[in-house]
Amino acid sequence: MTLSTFYFLVQQTMFYSIPLLIVAIGGMYSERSGVVNIALEGTMIIGAFVSLFFMNQMQATMSGQSLLILSMLVAVGTGMLLSFFHAYASINFKANQVISGTALNLFAPAFAIFTARMLNGVQQVTFLNTYRITEVPLLSKIPILGDLLFKNTYITTYVGFVILAIATIVLYKTRFGLRLRACGEHPQAADSAGINVRKMRYIGVLISGALAGLGGLVLMVPVTTAFDGQVGGYGFLALAVLIFGQWRPGRILFAAFFFGLMKTISAAYTGIPFLLSLGIPSYLFKMTPYLATIIILTFTSKKSAAPKAAGEPYDPGKR
Amino acid sequence: MNISKLLNNRSFKSVSASIIVILLGLMVGYLILLISNPRQATDGFIIILKGGFNGGLRGVGNMLHNSMPIILTGLSVGFAFKTGLFNIGASGQFILGAFAAIYIGVRWTFIPIEFLWIVALFGSIVAGALWGAISGILKAYRNVNEVITSIMLNYIGMYLVNFLVVNTVFDLTRNQSISPIRAYLPRAGMNILFPFSSVNVGFIIAVVVAILMYIILEKTTFGFELKAVGYNREASRYAGINEKKSIILSMMIAGALAGLGGGLLYLSSTGKHIEVVDILASEGFNGIPVALLGLSNPLGIIFAGLFVGHMNMGGFYMQRLRFVPEVIDIMIAIIIYFSALSLAFKSFIETMARKLRGKTL
Q1: Which domains are present in chain B?
Q2: What is the ipTM of this complex?
Q3: Are A25 and A269 in contact (CB under 8 A)?
């Protein structure tokens, strides 16, 4: 394998891994606060749809990084708006979180396709990709690392790493993080220590919505220029990455990159002479990421670190 | 039965709550139509309400046929819910069942033609059950979250079936599976009741299976044990239930139901083939809302499946007025959301009522 194929693989891996990382970190905030958010898929769709529609409308007057950043803010806002409904049902109404999440997963793609066809006549939302950074000045000159991280990239990649860093600090080094985790482990105890469980859970769910919405946009920008009202199951995969990552930022990073790398190999193996020479059917390559995840989980799941109260509505009478 | 008794009846309460929730969802749907095209909104809404009836008996027959696979995947998801598992993998189980049925229907020419469709359906049940069993075994013995394994198995199943189709029952010119003509399901008189429609014996089988599942869950010790493990794994083990076996059996039954759905749909003589594309079978995911609308009760799921099928037919006919059929999914989503709220609301009222009663005593 030549060095340039290696660089290409890493750059491709980023496109798959970063959105998974962002969305799984979002799911982590929600589950750590005690609310399971299976609506990540729907939230990604709605975030991608509204922000790309915004891009589509604005690209006549704007372009480049400033438009991308604005669109990212739109995606964050849209995701939060949708996840508010999940928070309202699960926290105020103590509703079944799977039911509420499924409703949103059903709503989001239908809404995206309906609105796109009613407004534009076609299902696809198209946009111009003016966001690719061929070379980051100075940093791309660093040997090896420059080629890996600072060429043919998008600012979204760096945003992903920043989100990861913030999540690690917030979760383990701040009072807020401690309180959030307490609400997901033992909300009754947290409540008796004076923590507002409802407020913490609202924050957790809204952050998950913000990041899932953003993740939808981040997934779409590098790989396509026409959004079709779906994100190909990435929201569910992010859920899997979250569990695979044992609800911890560091391990989520590992899980997201493991899955992204597998996915890249399965998509690009024809460009790697060694893998091509093995003569394995293409279907087997396509299965690899999913198969590998199951195999790894088989050997690592005996002790699950799931937040104990995740999925259960908070009942103050249950001390 | 006097009125106060009726109001206290549990099933009356849930049925009336469901009706209110459905009316709310319909109202929101009407609002969406009004916003998007005020002039034709009312006509469009009437088409939705009429559903399959827009097409007369043929439309009703097609509606029943469209309900058949989602009743079965709904049963699959609902059965797993009842036993404390979330089977998000109905899609993979469904497509494996479909492949097994097509393979047997096309290749097992040694079986007499009268029995071939029955053997093929058994094949679909076995294939679905085996695919479901993987999640069950990993959950029972290795504590792997069944949600993840079944998501992963959806993709693995899709690629596996594409691979198997290409290598065993492939129609190269159309890039899809060969039609299992010899194993097409009998019409069982449904074509006389609903002339020119797609409905066949599959719908009858779906209803019979739903009733069977109801009996198993509600009237047998076996069903009770499966549900008990769902409520509390530790307590069930203490009570002498083999909880590992129960989890595996639950997932196998859920998988078998979804697999049967795949078999029935792809053995119908309606030109449905497995296309070799990288897209998950949507019928599996559509089972989730059906199960939720039916409150995971097998009999409720029959009606929920019919309701969703009815609405989808309405969406189909609504395209005449250039409305986008996705409005139906929006309405179903809203109905499910409100039903989540109403369930919570109901249990809240019941707790309050119990507390009040406690005080007066």
Answers
A1: 1-37+323-361 (no CATH), 58-310 (1.10.3470)
A2: 0.88
A3: no
